[in-house]
Amino acid sequence: MRAAVDHLQTVDYVAAGRIGVLGVCAGGGYAVTAAMTDHAAGSLWHTTELHSRVRSAEKLVVVEGGTHMDFYDVPEYVKRAVEEATPFFEENLAG
């Protein structure tokens, strides 16, 4: 993930300070760990912000019917999960 963020920060049309990451299963853990340990892009602040939001979460999304593995490659479940996550990213990361 760090290599991907490093690359994105060099792309002209990417706002380096507004890069977000989303992970499923182990990727979720990797995403948080990357944010906690990557100090190049102000990630520690974002990690602190993330933790404060998690403690007071306003919305928990449960996509009924899907099993753990379905969220990797079963279009029905992937689509529903992405539809739930997209508004958050648009609101918080859109430039």
How widely separated are the two ends?
Answer: 21 Å
Secondary-structure element string: HHHHH
Average pLDDT reading: 75
Structural class: mainly alpha
Domain Dienelactone hydrolase: 2-59
Pfam family, one: DLH
Protein name: Dienelactone hydrolase domain-containing protein
InterPro entries: AB_hydrolase_fold (IPR029058), Dienelactn_hydro (IPR002925), Polyketide_trans_af380 (IPR051411)
How would you summarize what this structure contains?
It comes from Amycolatopsis deserti. The chain is mainly alpha-helical.
Q: Would you write up a description of this structure?
A:
By secondary structure, this protein is mainly alpha-helical. The relative contact order is 0.12. It folds into two domains: 1-58, no CATH class; 59-95, no CATH class. It has helices at residues 2-8, 26-37, 43-55, 70-73, 75-93.
Tags for this model:
mainly alpha, 95 residues, 5 helices, single chain
Task: Describe the SSE topology.
Elements (H helix, E strand, L loop, with lengths): L1 H7 L17 H12 L5 H13 L14 H4 L1 H19 L2
Helix pairs in contact: 2-3
